[in-house]
Model the fold of this input.
Amino acid sequence: MDWRDEGIVLSTRGYGETGAILELFTREHGRHLGLVRGGAGRRQKGALQPGNSMSAHWRARLEDHLGTYTVEVIKPRAGLIMEDGFALLGLSAACSVASVLPEREVHEPLFDGLELLFDLMDDSDIWPVIFVRWELGLLQELGFGLDLAKCAATGARDDLIYVSPRSGGAVSREAGEPYKDRLFRLPEFMVGSSAQSAGPTEVAEGLRITGHFLERHLFGPQRGALPDARIRLQERFQARA
Done:
């Protein structure tokens, strides 16, 4: 078996004395692991940082084997934002969330969305919005999408300001008023298709919504809780709100 693809580094872990298991999110082969010989060495370790885009060549004798990677850096994103601790946390959080994708299952829209997110990490006004919208897309791709187009209670499409933590559906102001203490607030930037900036309070609420459903449907059943980096990112925005 032999293929070439573009990939984004999600994580690495040591293997033996000098090797590393590389977890890539690839455009045409999904989340895919492989062994990088010498990946723990100084020369390659710096290149295999989460968020970096790689040109990857994977080989294995059989399709279900771990296989080996030969990789080359295309975009060294981690190094480019090294001095921006907040952006680095966002990058780390996104990589940890992407790790929940089923192995070797292709999700090109999510790959393209993650590349867009990482390419905008130098714009602190927009990347948090893209982050939340990318998580919405991940939930949708994996079959747990939120219905934010109409009120879950009445079917109305106007004045949607809440989200039900049970159904994931939007709720209008009138229908949600008696239960507002038990509902999420729906930030405006989560509705519609155009990207827009948002303040820390809106982003924090967006992360709260997507985090709730990610944990319920994906991370909770598999790992018990959201990844630490994702939790820290949400806490940082809540502290700024």
Q: What stands out?
A: The first strand starts at residue 2 and ends at 15.
